[in-house]
Fold this sequence. Notes:
Number of domains: 3
Strand content: 25-35%
Oligomer: single chain
Shape: globular
CATH class of the largest domain: Alpha Beta
Amino acid sequence: MHDVIVVGAGAAGLACAQTLMKAGRAPVVLERSDTVGGRVRTDVVDGFLLDHGFQVLPLAYPEARAMLDYERLDLGEFARGAIIRADGRFRRLADPRQAPVRSLRALAGGVVGVRDGAAVMKLLRGSGEETTTAEALRRAGVSRTTVERFFAPFLRGIFLEERLTTSSRFLDFVLKAFADGPAALPRGGMGSIASQLADGLDVRTGTAAATVGPNAVSLETGEQLRAEAVVVATSGIVDEPVHGWNGVTCVYYDAPRTPIPGPWLVVNGEGGLINNLSVPSEAAPSYAPAGRALVSLSILGAGEPDLDAVVRQLRGWFGSGVAEWRHLRSYRIPRALPSYPVGGFGQPPVRLASGLYACGDHREHPSLNGALASGRRAAEAILADSAPV
């Protein structure tokens, strides 16, 4: 008989267990795979740190700030702004609050329309009545050119869907998070976030749950476990995203030198396979061995990537030096992010039944912040249900 069993050692399950442990409870976390993290994992390949899909930690995430020790993560920050690939050129668009002169020059140089500044400020105040992201951009007055060159590839890289049908409620959250602080990478890779969340917990990896129910878990080995409360923090058992999943493919290359100096995100405003590209080792040098650069690029969808077509596009961007790059690994992630269409924004009850609870970013909003918040809410429900009357 256990106190609380948490099934799944992703960010939501670990956040739930940490909250319970800090309240004096004794949770046990069961994880099918051989390591913690779920979708927030990092592999070490030839001295490179490869996250499972390009990910960043926006430092303004409120749940992350409350739950994580940023100093221990030893974060390397990305630049505020982006580099836009459009019309055969790379043009830098800095955050106007960080570099106003440079940003005005970029605006004047045709990266985005000058009138779009007021539209962006309107968006930052909130999109108003819920609609699709595409419609929210139109209503705010963002020009079609600016949407195609910057907002569409930038937001596709976050939402992982082509048509920007994601709810404007999530758009509001994303824009606020990126406006309030930079994005960063931990020195040990994004997987070190999960490792920190697992500190002090009783996590049993390589332990697969077959079925769950109120106060009970059956393992695939046939062993039966009992608990005062059971939390489902993984998909595929009793709790799935209502609207399905969005997928992505991330391709990593080892390069002898960085093609993009500085910790910038490159968004593709001229079409082709590559949606966005970055050099994580420019933000966190630990991502690559000394004297090398790690190049990461994202392709929407989780199909088999056409690496020949990818290399042709990269050569068009960076020239013949791409021939020196070495393909390290491709990650096809069909379940990268829960879909969040109009009407999908909400907080479903964490109690599935007496003694059975659920958490995950599909129950809050599809982000690391949402996963942490959902895990915390599930733990708080358990604590409230077991509190003396």
